[in-house]
Design brief:
Number of strands: 6
Radius of gyration: 17 Å
Order of helices and strands: EEEHEHHEEHHHHH
Strand order of the largest sheet: 1-4-3-2-5-6
Structural class: alpha/beta
Distance between the termini: 31 Å
Strand content: 15-25%
Shape: globular
Length: 213
């Protein structure tokens, strides 16, 4: 299935030296489901109340997602469990970020250049993915201090949570609509009873250990 999706465009946060793109991911730690990255160019004025998605209530996060998608430019990239197992989760995250930024750059007009990509964390895909061709800077805790990264964290989390809620309808035993694929006691108990699904990451220890029993 396609590993990226894009939105319609609205306003631009273009600076004299190019647009600033914020990037964050959701889903490094879960035992099931894709890893999702989002890239956002904020509109002006930017939506009020942006913050790390984990600090926001579900209602507030959903409201901000709607505003970001309606007013700003954004894109997501996702990497499925099979490829996570092939690349490892770090490599898959770098790929998801690259897909997201590439999809967003496809929306830019010909005279718009990327000034800088701000990535949450301490590493970026620069030098780690051959396709990555943009100036990049890692910011530890960026999802709480850089508004464009905060916006990306909201888009990534909401997008991934929706995927897992939909997946829960086909695989109802694991509680993905509540745990988003993380290794909660409920999820682990269901894994032991029902075994892994095609959406489980076989390289992650709790799943791999079950396959050895």
């Amino acid at each position: 299935m396609p590993r990226n999706a894009t939105s319609a465009t609205a306003f631009s946060s273009r600076l004299p030296n190019g647009v600033i793109i914020g990037v964050d991911e959701a889903g490094r730690g879960p035992l099931a489901g894709p890893v999702v990255a989002a890239a956002v160019i904020l509109c002006k004025p930017r939506p009020a109340g942006l913050d790390d998605s984990k600090k926001l209530t579900a209602i507030r996060r959903a409201a901000l997602e709607e505003k970001i998608k309606r007013r700003c430019r954004w894109a997501v990239g996702l990497v499925e469990p099979e490829e996570i197992d092939r690349l490892n989760i770090f490599g898959a995250t770098m790929l998801a970020m690259t897909l997201a930024v590439g999809a967003l750059c496809d929306q830019l007009a010909g005279d718009e250049a990327v000034g800088e990509v701000l990535v949450d964390g301490n590493l970026t895909p620069q030098g780690r993915r051959a396709e990555w061709c943009w100036p990049a800077r890692a910011i530890v805790g960026g999802d709480a201090i850089e508004p464009c990264i905060s916006a990306a964290s909201i888009i990534a989390k909401e997008h991934r949570d929706r995927i897992m809620r939909q997946a829960a309808q086909a695989h109802p035993h694991y509680g993905w609509e509540r745990n988003a694929g993380y290794g909660t006691p409920e999820h682990l108990a269901a894994l032991r009873k029902h075994g892994p699904t095609p959406l489980h990451r076989r390289s992650f220890a709790p799943v791999a250990q079950l396959q050895l029993l």
